[in-house]
Amino acid sequence: MDLSTTPALAAMAISALIWLAASIDALRRPAMRWSEQDMSKRWWTGMLIITAITGLGPIGGLLYFIFAFPRLRRGHPQS
């Protein structure tokens, strides 16, 4: 393996891990938590799947962690 490919492989691994972590978190959260926040679990998991299929998985994962994750973690309705 050429050392010049190491940063590219690291970036690919980190990108995959971002998507994987977002997907696991979204799937493990109970449906009740999503409905408490007036959010759709189906929409967010579907978005994560579609972004992965189209090669935009890391972007979908980042969107999840920026917009959905904080609201779900809070545990009370968004005002």
From TrEMBL:
Q: What is this protein called?
A: Cardiolipin synthase N-terminal domain-containing protein
Membrane-spanning ranges: 6-27, 48-69
UniProt keywords (A-Z) are: Membrane, Transmembrane, Transmembrane helix
Q: Which domain of life is it from?
A: Bacteria
Species the sequence originates in: Actinoplanes siamensis
